């Protein structure tokens, strides 16, 4: 089992323990009913990066705890690095940290007690908890259940003044990476990383040329915002390298000359239905703003032909949509690449990101071969989607061992699997019992179904069944474990 799997499972168990006994987290006499907490992951790539994260709330006070886990193969050296890293997380802005160490090493029979003694002699007041673990039981949904021993509670003092810290990124809403169908395509990832590679190699990068934009769109942008059309239409007003990379990618690949035209002719208005430069897995070019009856350009052209809006109103509606789509798409691209380990916090490609770009440039294959192996392996390992699949499998075992016909409707030959009931039940287990997702913070609103993006992405790689064959009576989600193991064994 990988280090990251251990870290995720151990973080989950610590959350369970502190919810049962808040004194493991807070000093004084905290009341359990006032504490909420869930295990998640750091959303950015700013060093030092913890192995896990706990986001808690006590009586309206937000508390962020970093997790540092050591495996037995790291040896006694891991004891010293854990002590240093746990302090570095507090310096970064975390309210506290927790060290999770093996119960024994071959050369030390109680490393947890040793770390406790060191901290008590040198850093008595620092909110650093120490836990040791026995080997996990992977037959359980939560493999570290009752396998952790607390040697030193975190003991964060609620009387500590609140000091705003802009360097600490908000926690994610789940313990696995944010991926969204339609925004996590391999070619889009490649083009963004390629743009980043090019721009970050220039000493003084220049902004993209937007002189080709229709004057009506420029005028609409100026009416809507005091920011420049470049900034408004890309939803990026910053001056960092990251902002320049995003603006360049957005205008060079999405807002192409044909894409930013509303119509190709008038009387009647004829839609300018031009694709972007991004390539989908089926070989087609990705459409933005048009192509469906409910797309902004389609709806706008219909209204223009019906005479219900003016041309100025049409361009303003289009500019607003470009503005909001730029924001949401950047969130998806940035978050996805960052969580998968392809992008550094400043916007530059990581070593893995450079490797992915080089493979795509050399082979011209974005959805097969080495590129697919790199991305698929990163999704499972760096993005921790393998953790989500583990939870699905174990939770499903619980459901269907108790009742083979759980989450079905009808009787006899008419029996059907109720996937919505099943998905909701899994979500409730993950949120309320395992505490590995915060349903209140999940993006996308109530219209999006739980795990919609994750399941769509996993299906594209064959890790689970396609949409029509994704679930089965008596077993739930169909998971292709041999293929998953093949990708887990692939070295990143």
Report on the structure:
The chain has 492 residues and is an alpha+beta fold. The chain has 15 helices and twelve strands. The strands form four sheets. Strands 1-2-3-4-5-6 form a six-stranded mixed sheet, sandwiched between helices. The longest helix is centred in the middle third of the chain and has 29 residues. The protein is globular.
Task: Annotate the secondary structure layout.
Blueprint: H1 3-20, E1 35-40, E2 52-58, E3 61-69, H2 77-92, E4 96-102, H3 111-122, E5 128-133, E6 148-152, H4 186-200, H5 215-224, H6 229-234, H7 241-253, E7 263-265, E8 270-271, H8 296-306, H9 311-339, H10 351-363, H11 369-381, H12 385-402, E9 408-409, E10 416-417, H13 419-433, H14 452-460, E11 471-472, E12 476-477, H15 481-489
Parallel strand pairs: 3-4, 4-5
Antiparallel strand pairs: 1-2, 2-3, 5-6, 7-8, 9-10, 11-12
Helix pairs in contact: 4-7, 4-10, 5-9, 8-9, 11-15
- The pLDDT mean sits at 93
What does the main sheet amount to? 6 strands, mixed
Order of helices and strands: HEEEHEHEEHHHHEEHHHHHEEHHEEH
Broad structural category: alpha+beta
Rounded Rg: 25 Å
Low-pLDDT windows of residues: 442-446
Widest sheet, order of strands: 1-2-3-4-5-6
Cα(first) to Cα(last) distance is: 16 Å
Shape: globular
Beta-strand portion reads 5-15%
Helix share, percent: 40-55%
Helix count, per DSSP?
15
Kindly state the number of beta strands: 12
């Amino acid at each position: 089992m990988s280090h990251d799997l251990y870290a995720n499972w151990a973080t989950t168990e610590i959350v369970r323990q502190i919810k049962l006994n808040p004194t493991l987290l807070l000093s004084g006499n905290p009341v359990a009913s006032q504490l909420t907490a869930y295990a998640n992951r750091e959303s950015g790539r700013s060093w030092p990066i913890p192995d896990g994260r706990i986001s808690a709330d006590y009586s309206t006070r937000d508390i962020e705890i970093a997790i540092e886990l050591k495996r037995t193969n790291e040896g006694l050296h891991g004891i010293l690095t854990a002590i240093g890293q746990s302090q570095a997380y507090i310096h970064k802005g975390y309210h506290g940290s927790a060290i999770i160490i093996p119960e024994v090493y071959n050369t030390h029979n109680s490393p947890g007690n040793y770390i406790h003694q060191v901290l008590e002699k040198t850093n008595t007041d620092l909110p650093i908890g120490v836990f040791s673990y026995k080997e996990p039981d992977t037959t359980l949904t939560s493999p570290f259940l009752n396998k952790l021993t607390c040697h030193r509670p975190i003991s964060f003092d609620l009387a500590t003044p609140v000091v705003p810290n802009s360097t600490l990124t908000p926690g994610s809403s789940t313990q696995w990476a944010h991926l969204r169908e339609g925004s996590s395509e391999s070619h889009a990832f490649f083009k963004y990383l390629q743009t980043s590679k090019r721009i970050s190699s220039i000493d003084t990068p220049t902004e993209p040329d937007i002189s080709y934009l229709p004057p009506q769109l420029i005028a609409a942008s100026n009416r809507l915002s005091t920011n420049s059309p470049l900034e408004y239409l890309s939803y990026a007003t910053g001056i960092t390298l990251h902002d320049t990379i995003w603006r360049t990618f957005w205008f060079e690949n999405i807002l192409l000359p044909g894409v930013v035209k509303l119509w190709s002719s008038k009387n009647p208005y004829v839609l300018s239905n031009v694709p972007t430069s991004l390539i989908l897995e089926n070989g087609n070019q990705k459409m933005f703003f048009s192509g469906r009856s409910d797309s902004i350009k389609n709806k706008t052209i219909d209204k223009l032909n019906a005479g219900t809006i003016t041309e100025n109103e049409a361009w303003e509606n289009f500019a607003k949509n470009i503005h909001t789509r730029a924001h949401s798409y950047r969130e998806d691209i940035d978050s996805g690449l960052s969580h998968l380990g392809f992008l550094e916090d400043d916007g530059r490609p990581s070593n893995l990101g450079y490797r992915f770009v080089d493979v795509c440039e050399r082979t011209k294959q974005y959805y097969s071969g080495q590129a697919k192996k790199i991305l698929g392996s990163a999704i499972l390992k760096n993005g921790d989607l393998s953790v989500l699949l583990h939870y699905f499998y174990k939770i499903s075992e619980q459901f269907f061992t108790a009742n083979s016909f759980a989450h079905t409707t009808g009787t006899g030959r008419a029996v059907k699997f109720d996937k919505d009931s099943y998905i909701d039940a899994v979500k409730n287990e993950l949120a309320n019992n395992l505490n590995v997702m915060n349903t209140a913070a999940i993006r996308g609103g109530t219209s999006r179904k739980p795990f919609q993006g994750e399941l769509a992405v996993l299906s594209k790689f064959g890790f689970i069944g396609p949409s029509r064959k994704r679930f089965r009576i008596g077993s739930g989600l169909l998971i292709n474990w041999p293929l998953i193991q093949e990708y887990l064994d692939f070295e990143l």
